Fold this sequence. Notes:
This protein is an alpha+beta fold and 238 residues long. It has two domains: 12-114, no CATH class; 123-236, 2-Layer Sandwich (Beta-Lactamase). The chain has helices spanning 22-31, 66-74, 98-122, 131-140, 164-187, 224-236, and strands spanning 12-14, 36-42, 45-52, 55-61, 64-65, 78-84, 146-153, 158-159, 194-198, 202-208, 212-219. A six-stranded mixed sheet has the order 1-6-2-3-4-5. The longest helix is centred in the middle third of the chain and has 25 residues, at 98-122. The radius of gyration is 23 Å and the shape is elongated. The two termini are 42 Å apart.
Amino acid sequence: MAQPALQTEQNGFVGAVSGMSLADIIQVKGGNRYSGSLIVEHLNKSGIVYFRDGEIVHAELGHLDGEEAFYAVMGWAGGTFRSEPKLSTTNRTINQSLGFLILEALRRMDEAKHSSQQEKLVEVSSPKGDAGMSDISTKLSVIPEIEHALVMTKDGAVVDDTSYQAEILGANGLFLALFSEQIGSQFGIGEFKAATVHGSEHHLFLFDSKRHLLCVSANGSANVNSLDSEIRRVIGQK
């Protein structure tokens, strides 16, 4: 008897091979040159991934099919799965290799995770007085290397900070945002989401969301990658 779809969020997939991620399960199917289908259920949704001789040839999830359906299923945080060797299809909507599909799915999951973190970084809901800016500054003040942090609108208006330092940082942040958009367009890498300038004396970090930008200056002696991760971690805390 098939297991019912889980009704609560949980980490990892459970089923015939508990303790493995969905990516692991799919790679095992590929290595075994499996033919048939893998049915994955999460909350009230059910997706089907079809295999032929170890390669994924088709996927379905609601109104989605092909690669988009596969990537959507891969993005689920948990669920149940079961193999159905006798359930096959004549459709061929996926022509990429199994390795490519797995890597692309993981890339999209990582991108979605970072996008969610950036929304938390700069989301300011109707700030009043100094509440919005003080909250951002207070959170980031725990990082010794941070010099200044501010929230600004997409047109460059600084929120809740009228200092001269904020005016200069805001101008630099707006220039960096415009320059990043031009670079993204020229190289075809999509919309600007975050940018970092690594300098010998100062570093500049810029994070984008739907309504605001978060601009942070830091001491040039700090490690850029570590500081970027620490900024995301601190601001993402409730």
